[in-house]
Write a structure and sequence with these properties.
91 residues; alpha+beta; GIY-YIG endonuclease; three-stranded antiparallel β-sheet; 4 helices; 3 strands; 40% helix; globular
Length: 91
């Protein structure tokens, strides 16, 4: 029987309070890669400090679509999305 793979859309909070959305199959491993400065061009400059949100998908297409949709929103819309998910940027 084939194992079902899980794909994730995730959002990082960066040290400059910016938000980064990404896609992975392992959120913890990907976050560690970002922390090491090897994750993405954006997170090399805007150092990530924590994972704010992640959502699991059984379809790679759906996870990539969630990432794309998040990245193409204004900051205000991104914050509104996170608030609806119960995520707060407060410490």
């Amino acid at each position: 029987m084939a194992e079902t793979k899980t794909y994730y859309f995730y959002v990082l909070l960066c040290a400059d309070q910016s938000l980064y959305g990404g896609f992975t199959t392992d959120v913890a491993k990907r976050f560690a890669t970002h922390l090491a400065g090897k994750g993405a061009k954006y997170t090399k400059v805007h150092r990530p400090i924590k994972v704010l949100f992640s959502q699991a998908f059984t379809s790679k297409h759906d996870a990539l679509h969630a990432e794309w949709a998040f990245k193409h929103q204004s900051r205000q819309k991104k914050l509104q999305f996170l608030k609806l998910q119960g995520v707060s940027l407060e410490k």
